[in-house]
Amino acid sequence: MIDLDDIDRAILRALVRDATQTAVAISGRIGLSQPATWRRIKRLRDAGILVGQRVSLDAAKLGFGVTVFLGIKLATKGRVSLDDFERAVTAIPEVQLVEHVLGLYDYRLRVVARDLADFERVLRRRVMTLPGVGDVEANVLLSEERRPGPL
Amino acid sequence: MLDDLDRRLLRQLQAEPTLTAAELGQRAGVSALKATRRLGRLLERGILKGQHAVIDWRALGYVVAVSLRITLDKTHARAFDEFLDAARGIAEVTEIQTFLGRVDVRLCVIARDMAHYQQIYRNQILALPHMADIEALMTVATLRDDESLPL
């Protein structure tokens, strides 16, 4: 694990804001030479801290008007049912996120749909039919913001 | 509206965000110039909102991730605004979502270890205003997280 200094943190903040920036553009902003900036970025990649980039699309403009977070409790437990459940849930195209969690629920899902009727279809045909699925709680996303985190 | 080519380009870009316009064009079956123009149009229309670097917090020593599901005391007219403002002030909060459902707000909190988490929870989370109830889901494993839209 490497320790970050203020320059590393500034580079990470800049890339989280816009990952398409070149090392030249970033070096200008943080007042470091271009080769030094490039070396820093490479070091952050090699250390597994920078792990790629995410494309941000306007889901609503693309016809996906509804995002729902689901909490799922399994009705039956045991290694076999976990494997079956995980294999089936990760194959649903509308499911963007699957987290195995500890607490009131066993899994946390993020699901996109065109509208509430489409969500109901996904819920009934795909989610409620998953192997071992028990209680399901749905919360419809109203707003979302990502924070820079402890940088 | 979006045509087939737009969808093909966005699908390829979502799958591999670091591809150049030339590579994207090749995969979508058009010239680099045409791909560049189309992507430019998608940016202009706000459909493509940008690209963001992804940080692996575990590589920085933040191995604990907790979803806090919070119900607010809605008898206060400004409960949401005041809560969200205060939550933005906690560095270890990486995501804030609001919902329509049983839960009002979700915070994603990261910490170096359980002792660090407990310290954030006691000193900062419990000091947030207007909370009526709070529930925690601790992430054991993330099985899928790509936020791609099924275009």
UniProtKB/TrEMBL annotation, chain A:
MF GO annotations: sequence-specific DNA binding
Gene3D superfamilies documented for this protein: 3.30.70.920, Winged helix-like DNA-binding domain superfamily/Winged helix DNA-binding domain (1.10.10.10)
A cellular-component GO term for this protein: cytosol
Gene Ontology terms: biological process: regulation of DNA-templated transcription; response to amino acid
InterPro entries named in the record: ArsR-like_HTH, AsnC-type_HTH_dom, Dimeric_a/b-barrel, Tscrpt_reg_AsnC-like, Tscrpt_reg_AsnC/Lrp_C, Tscrpt_reg_HTH_AsnC-type_CS, WH-like_DNA-bd_sf, WH_DNA-bd_sf
Keyword Magnesium among record annotations: no
All copies of domain HTH asnC-type, residue ranges: 4-65
Coiled-coil residue windows: none
Protein name stated in the entry: Putative AsnC family transcriptional regulator
Organism, as annotated: Octadecabacter arcticus 238
